[in-house]
From TrEMBL:
Leader sequence segment: none
E.C. number: 3.1.1.-
Organism: Cryptotermes secundus
InterPro entries, per the entry: AB_hydrolase_fold, CarbesteraseB, Carboxylesterase_B_AS
Keywords tagged on the record: Glycoprotein, Hydrolase, Serine esterase
GO molecular function: carboxylic ester hydrolase activity
Lineage: Eukaryota, Metazoa, Ecdysozoa, Arthropoda, Hexapoda
Pfam families found in the cross-reference section: COesterase
Residues covered by the Carboxylesterase type B domain: 11-399
Family: Belongs to the type-B carboxylesterase/lipase family.
Protein name as annotated: Carboxylic ester hydrolase
Broad enzyme group: hydrolase
Amino acid sequence: MKCFFNAYSAGFLSTGDDVAPGNYAMKDQVAALRWVRDNIEQFGGDAERVTIQGQSAGSKSVHFHMFSPSSRGLFHRAISQSGSAFMPWVLPPADPLAKAKEQAEVVGCPATNSAALVRCLRGMEAKDIVKKELELWQPVLESKSASNPEPFLTLAPLQLVQTGEFYKVPWLMGSTSEDGAFFGARNITDHSEVEQFSEHMDVQGPEDFFLKLSLNESLIPETWQRIRSFYFGKKEIPDPSDLIKLYTDRYVVHAVHKAAILHSEAGHEPIYRYNFAYRGLYSFGDLAEIGSTHMNLGVVHMDDLIYLIPLPVFNVWPAGHPDKRVIDTMVTLFTNFATYGNPTPSGGKSEVKWLPFSVNNRSYMNIAHDMSQTPGFYGIRPVRLSMEHDLYKDRMEFWDSLPLKENADDFE
């Protein structure tokens, strides 16, 4: 079953009090999960074997449900693709009212008090708010009260994971090998954009990579210089491959890495992690905002979805195309997990056993091309599954070493 939700102000605006406590998008999802629990048997399903799955923003939602008492017992497996609740732009804000006031002011609503602010916004046409919608809305921390008896989230996920106070269900999670290239496509491929970035790198870099969300203001310049040196060295103009790695690590992979590590340290098992590195006939990179130079961006954000669900834009393959085997492989792995809590159960057809992730082994399933094979008729090598360890080890150790809020041991 698909569950749609509002990822912007209608879903997450909060005044920080009982007037608009917030997290409406997440509460809508909880309501949907309760409906599934109460009705799934009418459709031949099992209320004790519900799997929730999300990609990108949906992946963050899946992760947040592990931390909410409201969601506990409503699902029994979780699949997160290219996202986690530890991404800097979804960390709960310190002052949600300030953002609510900012949104109110840009659409002409009074921000003098919560009641007037919310009354005005609710009286507006939705399209008029959408035209001036602020970016980066995220779940907020709520307080329990008589009028808000069931808050979705009362403590930050980074606090809860450190105490082990979260819902531990079998978890399949991962990302694509060049995940972030989709978000930075224009800045990577447009010569003028690359030149502008290079010329103003010390100003634009911290903005493009959201350092203000993760660092105290005084730490930003030094931290950016460390990032610049690590990815670009002494280059005045970064190579496309350097930018792809930076976008991938900052936008997606480090947050996924952080989630796997912290959950494993808290005793969460099993966790099955993957890296999807197969570039087939289609890619969302071909639909990204490309600049003056068209290039293969690699295996970008959402490319794993191509092999899991029918998509209107990518749905026709020639007879005998190697992508068809990838579809069969991916669907089998994911449905096995939803059915058994294990993507490669005993007695299954997979030739490779998917080993759970742990802090000590850091295992992940690498879904990539078989480089020992020559490209076939369609110019594509067949898929190969292999168990690997420590995805992007040096890059992740670098990000773990930075003084980011999401790296703090005493996060508040």
